[in-house]
Amino acid sequence: MTDALFQPITLGAIEAKNRILMAPLTRGRATPPGFVPNEMMATYYRQRASAGLIISEATGISVEGLGWPAAPGIWSDEQVEGWKLVTDAVHAEGGKIVLQLWHMGRIVHPDFLDGEKGVSASATTAPDHAHTPTGRQPHQEARALELSEIPRVVGDYRHAAENAKKAGFDGVQLHGANGYLIDQFLRETTNLRTDEYGGPPENRVRFMREVLEALIDVWGADRVSIRLSPNGDTQGADDSNPEAIFGEAAKVVEELGLGFLELRQPGPEGTFGRTDVPQQDAMIRKIYTGPLVLNSDYTGEAGAADVASGRCDAVSYGRPFISNPDLPERIKTGADLAPNVDVPKSWYLPGPAGYIDYPTLAEEQPA
Fold first, then answer.
1. pTM for the whole thing?
2. CB 354 within 8 A of CB 341
3. Residues near 264 by Cβ (< 8 Å), separated by ≥ 6?
4. Which residue, 257, 261, 259, is CA-closest to 284?
5. What are the CA-CA distances from residue 125 to residues 3, 129, 237 (Å)?
6. Euclidean distance between the first and final Cα of the chain, in Å?
7. Residue 321 · residue 327 · CB < 8 Å
8. How far from 1 is each of 6, 281, 293, 303, CA to CA, in Å?
9. Of 143, 156, 213, 333, which residue is most buried, by most CB within 10 angstroms?
């Protein structure tokens, strides 16, 4: 039984009609060269508005912070106008949507920055390859942000949050997971600093706190959330004592009174997740008393069980929403889920194929 997923929930100031959230999913359909959202993206999100809350795909806060081909941004007026198409479409269907704010840090390849280095907590290099407009390229060493630059980056987050409000979103989520800039400050393998932003956990959460405070200044705490990934290695970001650093991060989230906290947990099929590290949600739940959302490789039954048991308050579903725009209806009725076709090829290719051409259950049945 999946009834637990179909109870309404209050996520800060947001009233969600069910506890099936749509997780952030990078899809690479923004219009180049300005990383601008478009009508096709509006259709995509409109189709999935039956989620209790949509967390948008990760969205670049600045040119410096965005290093994924055709991912959207939120720093320009043109991008704001493009996102209005999306928020209007979701709201017209009775849905709610928040914008996930993204700075990729050292994951941004110099190809996106006219040859300049990306920035990070410290001068380190991510493993593996970057996705660039000219194909896969080995990651390059980033440069450490100077102390004098950190207020500028915090200001970029603030500006992005202001633009998200102009675009009509219901709130914002800070992307603090998966080895991107916030995570690079949190974890010891990527944060080698010896100033007030490095060293002990209470220093390494400082940048995260300052960014969250800026977002709260714009939106109020009850419309701000954060995503964390308190598991093992994610794109080369790791920590020998995850309980200490993520416990400290949870204290910040609790102190600031955020609307909700989303955790990406290890999962057997996860893009970044691992199964050989302990899950930290139980520890975090003892510290953070607000709504807790768990993510990664959930079925409807498993999600309902974790909500019913009190392990979490809601579940965010990612890849199942790609090929099942009406995922809540399918979970509720016990219908089979449509498989993702041409995965992962269709995740990031331009055009409507594998993006807005998946039928709903109602559309399948007559066929």
1. 0.95
2. yes
3. 177, 178, 227, 228, 229, 231, 270, 272, 273, 295, 296
4. 261
5. 46, 10, 10
6. 28
7. yes
8. 11, 23, 19, 10
9. 156
**Residues designated as active site:** 180
The 3-state DSSP class for residue 336 equals coil
Q: Is there a contact between 48 and 325 (Cβ–Cβ < 8 Å)? A: yes
> Rounded distance, CA 316 to CA 339, Å?
18
pLDDT for 273: 40
Bridge partners (DSSP) listed for residue 131? 136
CA 261, chain centre distance (Å): 11
pLDDT tens, position by position, 166-216: 999 999 999 999 999 999 999 999 999 999 999 999 999 999 999 999 999
- Name residue 179's amino acid: G
Please give the Cα distance from 341 to 156 (Å, whole number). 37
Q: What is the pLDDT of residues 347-366, one digit of tens each?
A: 888 899 999 999 999 888 76
Contact (CB, 8 A) for 62 and 17: no
Strand 172-175 and strand 292-295: pairing? unpaired
Instruction: Report the candidate in 4, 31, 50, 9 with the shortest Cα–Cα distance to residue 325.
Output: 50
Instruction: Please give the pLDDT value at position 363.
Output: 86
Predicted confidence (pLDDT) per residue in 215-224, tens digit: 999 999 999 9
How distant is the alpha carbon of residue 29 from its chain centre?
A: 16
pLDDT score at 29: 96
Q: Which residues contact 309 (CB under 8 A, 6 or more apart)?
A: none
- Residues whose CB is less than 8 angstroms from the CB of residue 302 and which lie 6 or more positions away in sequence, other chains included: none
Rg over CA atoms, the chain: 19
- 269 pLDDT tier (thresholds 50, 70, 90): very low
Cβ distance 224 to 215 under 8 Å?
yes
* The two three-digit tokens of residue 190, written as one number: 């990527």
Question: Residue 356's CB: how many other CB atoms inside 10 A?
Answer: 17
